[in-house]
C-alpha cells in the first residue's frame, strides 16, 4: 500500500467518526436531559460532561486532519492546516489535540471511580456532588493540560526533526511543508555522530506513561472490585442491582473499546521508535482508530442501558405495530370480501 493512501483512509475514518460521534453524543445528551434519570445521580452529569468533551475532541480532530508517521526514531504527530497560521499557533493546536487524547481516558477512569463508589462505597458518592464534582472535572482537565503542555514544551522542533519531517511529507504524502504543523516525539539526539537519549524528551514520555498507567490501573482496580461486589450483592433491590449491572456492562465494553482503539495503539507508538522500529505510515492505524472512538463510546451506553435503548427503539416498534395492525385489517377485509363472493 502506498503511503499516500493513508490520506484517504484517515480522511474517511475522520468523516465516519465525526458523523457517528455528533449524532450519538447529541442523542445521549438529549436522553440524559429530557428523560427522568434521577436514579443515575451525579453519573448523569458525568456522562453529559463526557459527551460535551467528545464533541469538542471530534471537532478538533476534524479541524486538524492529523497524521501519525514514525521515521528516524521519531513520532511525527502531523496536522494539515486548513488556512495559514504561525508555527507557534500550529504547535499549540497540535498540543491541544494531544491533551484531548489524555482527557478522554482520564475522564474514562473517573467513570470507573464513580461506579466503584456506587457499588462498593455508596457513602463516598458525596464526593461527586456539588463542588466535588467540579473538582473531578477540573482535575481531569489539569491532567490533560499537563499532557498538552509536555507535548508543547518537551518536544521542540530541531534541525534534525525538521529535515526528517520535510522528507516524510514530500516523499510519503506529497504535501507542502508550509501547510503542515507537527509535534515531533523524538527520543534521541546526535552529538559528534553519536546518538544519545534526549533527557527532555524522556521526561515527556515518562509523564505520558505515568498518566496512562494510572488511568488504566484505576480502571482495572475499580472495575474488578465493582464486578466482585455486584456478583456478591444480596441486600440491594433488584432494580438497583439491575441498574448497576447495566452500567457495569457498559463500562466493560467501554474498557475493551478504548483498550483496543487507544491504549494498545498508543503504547505501540511510544515503544516502536524507542527500540528503533520505524513503521512509517502505519502509525496512522492509531489515527484511524482514535477517529472512531468518540462515536463508538456513546453508542455503547445507548444500547446497553435499557431505558435509553427502549426510548430509541420505541418509534420503530410503534411503526412496526401500526403496520402490523394495518396489514391484519387488510387481510381480514380481503377474507370477508372473498367469503361474500
TrEMBL record:
Q: Which domain of life is it from?
A: Eukaryota
**What InterPro entries is this protein classified in?**
7TM_GPCR_serpentine_rcpt_Str (IPR019428)
The topology of this chain with respect to the membrane is: Multi-pass membrane protein
Gene that encodes it: str-113
Q: Name one GO molecular function term.
A: G protein-coupled olfactory receptor activity
Question: Which GO terms are recorded in the biological process aspect for this UniProt protein?
Answer: chemotaxis; G protein-coupled receptor signaling pathway; olfactory behavior
**Which residues does UniProt assign to the signal peptide?**
none
Q: What's this protein's family per the entry?
A: Belongs to the nematode receptor-like protein str family.
Protein name as catalogued: Serpentine receptor class r-10
Subcellular localization is given as: Cell projection, Cilium membrane
Q: What does this protein do?
A: An odorant receptor which affects chemotaxis to the volatile odorant diacetyl. Specifies AWA neuronal cell fate via the odr-7 pathway.
What quaternary arrangement does the UniProt entry report?
A: Interacts with odr-4.
Q: Which Gene3D superfamilies does the entry link to?
A: Rhodopsin 7-helix transmembrane proteins
UniProt keyword annotations, A-Z: Cell membrane, Cell projection, Chemotaxis, Cilium, Glycoprotein, Membrane, Olfaction, Receptor, Sensory transduction, Transmembrane, Transmembrane helix
